[in-house]
Write a structure and sequence with these properties.
The chain is mainly α. 74% of the residues lie in helices and 3% in strands. This is ABC transporter permease.
Length: 307
């Protein structure tokens, strides 16, 4: 092989050499675990007799049996309904606050923008378990300074860790932690809007409110779609907040959310096969909802572009 051919071959193979580490890591830590989970979901453990001795417990083919059991499991379905209610509070409130904060920071008259942006984003940097533990103690009447102030003022002291208020307590943790990230995404999109657009709006006599409603929000619509997409995924995968609050109240069961149900089956009951099937169902539902939302958003953008 000539030197020219060797150099040409080396140039053509260089991209694949750079991609090889990423491909290996993807296969080992993403594709392989997913494949193993799918394999587990299609099997079950068959127990013979008392389940004692060698060969008493065998792994056999179950087909879609684990999936059928998961789809008819009342605990999993109840957890899914609770997550839907939780998401109905978290997503609109969190994205609404993120949009308002981003618009406020993008205003010309706002001072200390860097400090304010950092202060809003900082809760996102706190791990979810730490944030849930922090808020959990603030919810406890015996140690919370808020209940102390309410007691001194003679005002009612609601139990935020019981019944309906529990949804508000959990939603508050998610909103407090996630608003900053979504605000940064939207704010970055706002800063990329050309200044000429604002100058044209000012010459046309548009007020700051009209500029925000008719120019800024429509132009950051892709960022809103992206943040909504991320919020759906995070809501369906809620785990750390209710798990951390569980020792503080009896209102949070071990199967409060679908992922908590997966964890309980896998590590509480030792049934990794059912847990794998449940996790696969959650992943499929997340994929379908996310893909459906993105498909609807893209079709709407195409219709608006055609007009």
């Amino acid at each position: 092989m000539s030197i020219a051919r060797r150099r040409s071959y080396g140039v053509r193979s260089a991209p694949y050499a750079f991609l090889l580490p990423a491909v290996i890591l993807f296969a080992l830590f993403f594709a392989l675990p997913i494949g193993y989970a799918l394999w587990l979901s299609l099997h079950k453990v068959k127990v013979s007799g008392l389940g004692l001795g060698a060969g008493a417990r065998k792994e056999v083919w179950a087909g879609i049996g684990n999936y059928a059991d998961a789809l008819t499991d009342s605990e999993l379905l109840d957890g899914a309904l609770r997550v839907v209610g939780y998401g109905a509070i978290v997503i609109p409130v969190m994205l609404g606050l993120a949009l308002v904060f981003a618009l406020m920071l993008d205003a010309d008259k706002v001072r200390l923008t860097s400090f304010t942006r950092l202060a809003i984003f900082l809760p996102y940097a706190i791990p979810g378990a730490v944030a849930a533990l922090l808020w959990g103690f603030l919810y406890l009447p015996d140690v919370s300074p808020f209940y102390f102030v309410l007691d001194k003022l003679g005002m009612p002291q609601p139990d935020l860790l019981d019944g309906g208020p529990l949804y508000l307590a959990l939603s508050n943790i998610a909103v407090w932690g996630g608003t900053g990230f979504n605000m940064i995404v939207i704010y970055t999109s706002l800063r990329s809007i050309p200044a000429e657009v604002y100058e044209a709006a000012t010459l046309d006599g548009a007020t700051p409110l009209q500029t925000a409603l008719r120019i800024k929000i429509p132009m950051v619509a892709p960022s809103l779609v992206l943040t909504f997409f991320f919020s759906i995924i995070a809501t369906l995968q809620v785990f750390s907040e209710p798990t951390t609050l569980k020792p503080l109240t009896n209102s949070v069961s071990t199967t409060w959310s679908p992922l908590m149900k997966v964890y309980q089956d896998a590590f509480g009951k030792g049934d990794i096969h059912s847990a794998a099937a449940e996790a696969t169902i959650i992943a499929i539902v997340t994929l379908v909802l996310s893909f459906g939302f993105l498909r609807a958003a893209n079709s709407r953008n195409k219709q608006e572009a055609a007009r």
